[in-house]
Amino acid sequence: MIEEILKKAEESHELTKEEIVSLLEGAKSKKQRKRRQGDKKTRCVEEQSENYASTLLCIYASDNLSAFQPFTLSPSSHLSLLTAHCSLFISADKIRQKHVGDEVHLRGLIEFSNYCKQNCLYCGLRRDNKQLKRYRLSENEIIALAKNASELNYKTVVLQSGEDPYYTADKMKYIISEIKKFDLAVTLSIGEKTFEEYQAYRKAGADRYLIRIETTDKNLYKKLDPGMDWENRLKCLEDLRKLDYEVGTGCLVGLPGQTLESLADDILFFKKINADMIGVGPFIPHKNTPLKDTQGGTFEMALKVMAITRLLLPDINIPATTAMETLNPNGRLIALQSGANVVMPNVTQGDARKLYEIYPGKICVNDTPDKCRGCIEAKIKSINRTISKDYGFKADL
Ligand code: SAH
Ligand code: SF4
User: Fold this and answer.
1) What separation in Å is there between the alpha carbon of 12 and the centre of ligand 1?
2) Range(s) for CATH 3.20.20.70 in the chain?
3) What one-character-per-residue DSSP string does 50-113 give?
4) Segment 138-163, tens digit of pLDDT
5) Separation of CA 120 and ligand 2 centre (Å)
């Protein structure tokens, strides 16, 4: 059944919500699912087999790497589950290669302020987290980081921050127009703004904008994003589209109360708004937030949501997100072999790298931009992929 769904997706890039839920669930038959709800012993075995599946997945994805975890062979009764897991990722990898090729696009990430006026329950930068030491970089510091990124051969920088009113439209216009002088594409990820502000940034030269919808479950959004309005987030995406930005959105996977049906809705939403870029990340609980005791998302589920997104939106940019690497030491490489074609290495310097703590366990906090560049280049080469020398606009993929 999984094979049939994948065949349909590969041919038509269309799936129903039920079909997406089946892919997210894996190879379990209806009977198995029913048993799982009732029988503790079965549940335990199935959970174990999912661990086997993820181990196998690591090996499948890292067979070009010198170091990978030793593993135990799975019992043959679990093979169908393993195959189903892998066939989704293999299918997404095939579609990625066919539609956007083997090039990996690098975007240098500049995390320029960890001040935020919002209070999202899941995020370490939320305004009520009084434990966090706050920082903001000056306009010239941000411009210097972008210059350094261009010297390291990046063709795009992503300017990201909490929602920090210190950076007025005039300040952002100055920063963007100065950075454009380095022949860089500029992506912004600075949250909800007015149409006029988005317009001003665009006129100053901003090319792309990332704003995740986080979840399409409006009730869940209301609970997790107090003081914010889901409809306004949608309006932001529509405004950005009107202003001819390349529009990126995405979701968090593993939020408390989130269902597989709601994740399927997220994927169908990405398709409906015809997004140019989709970032999918596991939710990782942060100790200084109200969600500190929740379970968070798994690497496997985030990977599945990402892979299905590739099947339905074959020609878009999909990053192998940093949060995936936090949960799995080869997370970004596995993602690159399961549908992703973009990586966003950090080009911020000094203490800011540590202090931009949206979630715990962030990778490479003590590294430098040039070390990160060298490291990711070597990793990408190890899986026989090439690094793009281009801006990586969707239309040119
Ligand atoms: N303030 C801007 C950009 C910075 S936040 C905005 O909210 O759009 C960037 C992304 O970090 C968010 O969209 C969210 O999906 C992600 N994020 C927040 N908290 C997280 C957590 N605990 N685990 C993983 N990702 C998280
Ligand atoms: Fe602020 Fe973005 Fe974190 Fe929400 S997700 S608290 S808007 S930085």
Assistant:
1) 32
2) 101-396
3) HHHHHHHHHHHHTTTSS-----PPPPGGGHHHHHHHHHHHHHHHHHHHHHH-SEEEE-EEEEEE
4) 999 999 999 999 999 999 999 999 99
5) 6
Contact 179, 186 (CB under 8 A): yes
| Strands 246-253 and 208-210, sheet pairing | parallel
Residue 381 structure tokens: 């080469």
Q: Give the pLDDT of residue 396.
A: 83
Q: Tell me: the pLDDT tens digits for 25-39? A: 986 545 555 544 544
Which class is 101-396 in CATH?
alpha beta
Pocket of ligand 1 (CB under 6 A): 122-123, 160, 162-163, 189, 191, 211-212, 214, 252, 281, 283-284, 286, 323, 358-359
Pocket of ligand 2 (CB under 6 A): 116, 118, 120, 123, 125-126, 162-163, 191
Closest CA to ligand 1's atom 10: 212
